[in-house]
Amino acid sequence: MNLDKSTKRIAKKVKAGFQGYPQITLAYFGEVEDCATQVVVSFMLEAGADAQEERFSSTGNIRKDETVQTTIVKVIERAEAKTVIEVAGVAKIK
After folding, report:
1. What is the C-alpha separation between 67 and 50, in angstroms, rounded?
2. What is the mean pLDDT of residues 77-86?
3. Overall pTM surpassing 0.85 (yes/no)
4. What is the spatial distance between Cα 53 and Cα 11, in angstroms, rounded to a whole number?
5. How far apart are CA 90 and CA 85, in angstroms?
6. How far, in Å, CA of 63 to CA of 69, rounded?
7. Those residues with Cβ within 8 angstroms of residue 65's Cβ, 6 or more apart along the chain or in another chain
8. What is the 3-state secondary structure (H, E, C) of the chain?
9. CB-CB contact of 56 with 39 (8 Å)
10. CA distance 44 to 50
11. Is the pLDDT of residue 1 over 90?
């Protein structure tokens, strides 16, 4: 899957808003606001359940990394996530 297609599929799920559980949350992190080098994908099966997390890293902007974005789409599909939430912006790496 190419970068443009996977980015659009993620954006479409995010735009749909809350549709129920399971839920996936995407949070991007980086040294500077315009370049995310890490993404944390959190999976929550139901309300109040503990979230399972998976982290991905890249040397460049991870939002432009075709492999990582395609992997996120696959995670969403395999988890049969009804809701995908994307945390706005890029949080500073601690």
Report:
1. 27
2. 96
3. yes
4. 20
5. 14
6. 7
7. 3, 58
8. CCHHHHHHHHHHHHHCCCCCCCEEEEEEEECECCECCEEEEEEECCCCCCCEEEEEECCCCHHHCHHHHHHHHHHHHHCCCCEEEEEEEEEECC
9. yes
10. 7
11. no
